[in-house]
Structures are given as C-alpha cells and as structure tokens.
Amino acid sequence: MAVKSFKPKTPNLRYRTVVDFSGLTKVRPEKSLLESIQRTGGRNNTGRITSRFIGGGHKKCYRKIDFKRDKLNIQGRIESLEYDPNRSSFIAKIVYKDGERRYILAPHGMSVGDTVISANEAEIRLGCHLPMKNIPVGTELHNIEIYPGCGGQLVRSAGGQAQLVAKEGDYAQVRLPSGEVRLVNLECRATIGQLSNLDHENIVIGKAGRTRWLGRLSHQRGVSMNPVDHPHGGGEGKSKGGNHPVSPWGQPAKGYKTRHNKRTDKFIMKDRRQKL
After folding, report:
1. Are 73 and 104 spatial neighbours (Cβ–Cβ below 8 Å)?
2. Average pLDDT over residues 243-269
3. pTM, 2 dp
4. What are the structural domains, with CATH classification, of the chain?
C-alpha cells in the first residue's frame, strides 16, 4: 500500500504521512476475537513506574492473533484484511470450513478470497503454515517458532521477512531481518511469505500529539534534570559533568554489550553486528 500525504493547510499536516488503507476491508472487527486491554501507565502491581514515558493513548481492544496456527489440515478462506492498532502489520480474518474464525498476520500480496492451510505437508503458497523440514531452501518466511509448538515468535512486524538459508542435521539456518543467521529446529513451524504494510517504515509522525495518541509520553533528557534524578543532571547548559552517557541507574548507554545469555549463543551462526 502507498503512503498518503496531505496538503499543508496546517503546520502539522505539512510533513505528516499515513498509510493508505484503501486496500483493507471496511468491516468491524470480529467481537469474539476481541479482548480488553488494561492500561498500566508503565507501573507494576505496587504502583511504581518500571517503564518510563508510557501513558495516554487512544482507546483500543486487543485482537487475538493465532500465532500457533494449530488448526491442522482444515482449509481456510481469507474473509477480510483489517487494521490492527496493536501491531504494525495488517491482519487477516480466516473463516474455516467448519465455521470457526481466527485472525492471522497478513502476508504481503494476500487478498480476500485466497485460501490458506496449516499442515505438516502443504503447498508452498502465501500464508500457508508448515514445519521447516518441509519448506524448500530459499523460501521467505515470517511468524517463526523458536521451540516446536510454542507459536511464532520471530519476524512478526510490518514488512518483515526471514529466509531459509540451509538445512543441516536437526536444524535449519534462518537469516533474520537483522542480518543474524540463527539455527532453528526443523520441527519448528513458520508461515510462507513477507509480512504486509511494507511502507510502515516510511511513515512521518508529523506532530508530537500523534505520538501521544500512540501512548508514548515525551522522553525527558537526562541533561535537563537535577543531579538527584540523573547522572547527567546539573551544570550550566547541556553539560553531562564529564560523565560518559549512562542510564539513570548508571549503565553505559553506548557500546556496552547487554546480552548475557550463553545458553543460546550456540544457536547464533552469524551475529547481526558482524560486517559482511
């Protein structure tokens, strides 16, 4: 879908762009697949802020997405393509032959009336869901499982696509959008195709209020705070006081490796930071 711009009748419309939703189906979301969302404001169960700069935002309901695709060997038809306020990609509503309806992540190029299926052996077609061992090398994938049966956890945002690079032993080598090449068990399942809404990365917010609609408060700089609130606080002007960039709790903010998970290091064939 294309990006839609506006005539600069007001200052905030001058640079603002939105995705053109003309290709989506004009229907209300399926009531049986909606859940309410409890707003936290970034606070935990004791009322303390654990995630800063979260608050406000437009009211919305959660769409229950079928990441597991565990309805096997039953063909489904795409009934509608819809917008989901909780994620960057679009979603598709499937109606199965037995009448059940479910939401899935919509691949790029999918249209109303297409058929999809989740099975151990199926045709390599857009939106079909099957195990890695039965997917040809070089296929574009999304919604990839890390552990068999746990549901898709990798490559779920707009325009995302991974590529099945090779198969060796009990594992497949998958190149993720970040450039990382990771080993994934051949019993893990994945969906064929690239995710929809490729123009999401080209969107220009245009004004601060639109960010507030998304539930994001303004991010306060450390140098504008007092010394009691942040290591960068105090001083005259934008002065860090000679300190290297750190978080409010003293953790280095640039160049400091935060990954400490040796248990899964063996599954990373090529780190995303390595240069070609």
Report:
1. no
2. 91
3. 0.90
4. 3-39+55-201 (2.30.30.30)
